[in-house]
Specification:
With 161 residues, the protein is α/β, with parallel strands linked by helices. It is built from five helices and five strands; from the N terminus they run βαβαβαβααβ. 40% of the residues lie in helices and 18% in strands. The chain starts with 25 loop residues before the first strand and ends with a strand. This is UspA domain-containing protein.
Length: 161
């Protein structure tokens, strides 16, 4: 009886490949408290759970140019929004922890939303970027953060309606 020979491509030669480590490692979602961003976060959470990837939720605190002129405490207000988002995410994660678990982290930064999300995706080495469709009418004319991320072409981007 002939003995079967292991094909050369299947022989373990210390190639570094490990079973179970292929697929996405980081799925990033941009959140800002809008309904579309929560849908994007839920979609990204499902992807991360099924792929056993880290779910990175990123909120970019916007700078408002004229706020200093009027004496508004924009920095405090946007930090409060970030705290509220983190609290809502934690509460939701706590409610579903017995049903399924997803590894997640919340990140916040300051600046332009497109620039902040792009830098976060690069730093986190995101395998996918998930954002909600813009709910602002003006973005049809000048472009939204989602469109700018897609046009950058540096990561797979999913825009959730």
């Amino acid at each position: 009886m002939a003995q079967e020979k292991t094909p050369e491509w299947a022989a373990d030669k210390g190639s570094g490949f490990e079973l179970g480590t292929d697929g996405p490692r980081v799925i990033m979602a941009g959140v800002d408290g809008t309904e579309a961003s929560w849908r994007a976060a839920a979609y990204a959470g499902g992807l991360a759970r099924r792929q056993n990837a880290l779910l990175a939720l990123v909120y970019v605190q916007p700078y408002l140019a004229m706020s200093g002129v009027y004496g508004a405490d924009v920095q405090g207000a946007t930090a409060e929004v970030a705290d509220d988002l983190a609290r809502e995410i934690s509460e939701h994660a706590e409610r579903v922890k017995n049903v399924y678990t997803t590894r997640w982290k919340f990140f916040t930064r300051r600046g332009d939303p497109y620039t902040g999300l792009a830098q976060a995706a690069d730093e986190l080495k995101a395998d996918a970027v998930i954002v909600g469709a813009s709910e602002k009418a003006g973005h049809r004319l000048i472009g939204s953060v989602a469109v700018r991320l897609v046009k950058a072409g540096r990561w797979p981007v999913t825009v959730v309606p």
